[in-house]
Design a protein that fits this description.
The complex is a heterodimer of chains A (332) and B (250).
Chain A lengths: L1 H4 L2 H23 L3 H26 L8 H18 L5 H23 L4 H21 L1 H4 L12 E4 L2 E5 L3 H23 L2 H11 L1 H6 L4 H27 L9 H14 L5 H18 L5 H15 L6 H16 L1
Antiparallel strand pairs in A: 1-2
Chain B lengths: L2 E12 L2 E7 L2 E3 L3 E5 L6 H9 L6 E6 L2 E2 L5 H7 L1 E3 L12 H12 L14 H13 L15 H13 L5 E5 L7 H14 L4 E5 L3 H7 L2 E6 L2 E6 L1 H6 L1 H8 L6
Parallel strand pairs in B: 4-9, 4-10, 7-8, 8-9
Antiparallel strand pairs in B: 1-2, 1-3, 1-5, 5-6, 10-11
The chains are: A mainly alpha (332), B alpha/beta (250).
């Protein structure tokens, strides 16, 4: 009985993930270069976005081609509020607002999308994503269209009356982003290990069987979708806080493709793999674009090679390494 | 004994094909009903229409006095209508334990516990092992469903259905591809189950059908052409002609 249940492997994973978090906390003290600190901050934000897509794709088995749209909605909500309503708004106002607007728009799309499945679901994500993108792009009087909104005030990071720092400071931006994303990661991880996560996985594994054990598949797909979009919205809020600017390219079809690539590169169904995927993508982009203008060609090539030779994504490397170590130890 | 499920002039047409045509059957509680008939007679389509996998073209399905003709699948399952599939429908990437556990968890209404560990629900785990023992998979709980032998996968299929605490269990060719030993286990299981619930079978194994059924309905080209006890069915001339083959019944 115990053999079938066993939680040991899970606990080991948690310890490793906590150690990685500790290393990330110490990183700024090792990394002197401010530029790289901002790059890592961006990786963590995009890692959250890719992880949110993993909830949808890797756990629930639903494909979204335009997941970046919901990052864009979170980002634009905060940007518009800071531009027009209150430039000095507290994060305690703009953060929940960004999430709330994302949730409302995601619900509208999700409610319809979950009535379908497979290709139809994926196509509807494109339809809704393009619609939201076009709204942002064409509402020039508010969003400044192609130009986007720039030079937004960076908010203070405050806890009640205590101001911990300002997002202008790259160290504050890094720690705030890390803290929010770490909370999102560990909460999502817990949810995916819960009975609720088991339901999402059963829908991925066999949707028809899931309904024949009494699962209301539509409702659970919608809940998975809402969780994924909420996390994407949070990544958007963090993006505006860090960059102080937004533009429609944040949420166009290419951006949607990039998130998908990050999630696939990292490996689905692990959550942490998404962060590896985001890191790989952003580092490659940074590294190759410094050498050639045609960096997209080489990036594409790298992605193709990785997909061919590591279909389970980069997350498979540490998993296989771990298995080999365990086997060696048991052989001794 | 009272009727637990009945269909009334139930039809399911695919274009011009009348796969299920004006079928009226009543299934008594705590009995075994077998639906037999040649390939393509509409037995599985009848199952699919009763369980909600396919919408009915016309007619009604009534369960426990309640019209469920248009109820979604998951609601029928909640009422206690559980089924197995002719072609195994499992969560292949998950363990045997998890296959049944997720069904049990759903049944016990624990799916929204988002901060518990999925395998820390003691009552769900206990009920899961009980079912695995019942179908003889207790020793294989930690194996992945896709590594099981075909016969074991068939048993798992039954276990998943049982996890829904059925009031009526519909088994679509449960013993197809099973060894004699495995078949006997399933027969014993059905005989045990039927003391509490109704069981409906689609089955090709005529010996098995005759030995365990209380009532048999014979389908041919979408319609019921004969109904009765095993003895009556054996003597029914129309059934013999349509299904059992030659005039002599052999």
């Amino acid at each position: 009985m115990e053999k079938a249940i066993g939680n040991k492997k899970d606990r080991k994973g948690l310890v490793i993930q906590a150690l990685v978090l500790l290393a990330l906390v110490l990183l700024p003290f090792v990394l002197g270069n401010k530029f790289y600190l901002r790059l890592v901050t961006e990786i963590i934000i995009y890692g959250l976005l890719a992880m949110s897509l993993d909830v949808l794709l890797g756990f629930t088995g639903l494909l979204s081609f335009m997941h970046a749209a919901y990052m864009g909605i979170g980002a634009y909500t905060v940007a518009v509020f800071l531009s027009y309503v209150d430039p000095g708004a507290s994060i305690w106002v703009t953060f929940p607002l960004g999430i709330a607007v994302t949730v409302v728009l995601a619900f509208a799309a999700g409610w319809l999308q979950v009535r379908t499945g497979g290709f139809a679901f994926a196509l509807l994500t494109v339809a809704f994503g393009m619609m939201y993108y076009t709204l942002v792009w064409k509402a020039r009087s508010i969003t400044c269209g192609d130009d986007g909104l720039c030079g937004l005030p960076k908010p203070d990071i405050s806890l009640g009356p205590i101001v911990l720092g300002n997002m202008n400071d790259s160290l504050t931006a890094y720690f705030f982003t890390l803290a929010v994303v770490a909370v999102c990661f560990f909460v999502t991880r817990r949810i995916m290990h819960s009975p609720f996560g088991a339901v999402l996985e059963s829908i991925r594994e066999n949707t028809e069987r899931a309904s024949f054990i009494g699962i209301n598949v539509r409702n659970y797909k919608l809940m998975g979708w809402m969780l994924a979009c909420t996390l994407a919205g949070i990544s958007g809020v963090l993006f505006t806080y860090m960059k102080g600017s937004v533009s429609p390219t944040l949420m166009d079809a290419r951006a949607g493709g990039i998130v998908l690539m990050m999630t696939l590169l990292g490996g689905m169904g692990t959550l942490w793999g998404a962060f590896i995927g985001a890191a790989a993508y952003i580092f490659l982009q940074d590294f190759i674009s410094a050498m050639t203008e045609n960096w997209m060609v080489f990036l594409g090539l790298a992605v193709i090679l990785l997909t061919l030779f590591m279909p389970k994504g980069l997350a498979d490397l540490p998993i296989r390494l771990g298995q080999r170590l365990t086997r060696q130890r048991s052989n001794l | 004994m009272s009727t637990i499920l009945s269909t009334n002039s139930l039809c399911r047409h695919f274009g011009g094909v009348r796969a299920v045509n004006d079928v009226t059957i009543a299934i008594r509680d705590k009995s075994v009903k077998a639906v037999i008939g040649p390939n393509g007679a509409g037995k599985t389509t009848l199952f699919n229409t009763i369980t909600g996998r396919l919408p009915a073209t016309a007619g009604t399905v009534v369960f426990d006095g309640r019209d469920i003709t248009n109820s979604p699948v998951h609601e029928r399952v909640k009422l206690g209508i559980c089924r197995t599939f002719q072609i195994n429908s499992l969560f292949l990437g998950a363990t045997v334990f998890e296959n049944v556990r997720i069904a049990k968890q759903t049944r016990m209404g624990k799916s929204l516990k988002i901060f518990s560990k999925r395998d820390s629900l003691a009552d769900v785990n206990e009920a899961t092992f009980e079912i695995l023992e019942k179908v003889g998979l207790g020793g294989k709980a930690s194996e992945l469903a896709n590594t099981l032998s075909y016969g074991d996968q068939r048993s798992l299929e039954v276990a998943i259905a049982l996890a829904g605490d059925p009031k009526i269990l519909l088994l679509d060719e449960p013993t197809a591809g099973m060894s004699q030993l495995e078949t006997n286990n399933i027969i014993r299981l059905i005989q045990k189950l039927v003391k509490e619930i109704a069981v409906v079978l689609v089955e090709h194994d005529v010996d098995m059908v005759l030995s365990i059924s209380d009532s048999i309905s014979v389908m041919h080209q979408g319609s019921i052409i004969g109904e009765g006890t095993p003895d009556e069915i054996c003597k029914n001339q129309r059934v013999r002609e349509a299904y059992l083959g030659d005039e002599n019944g052999h």
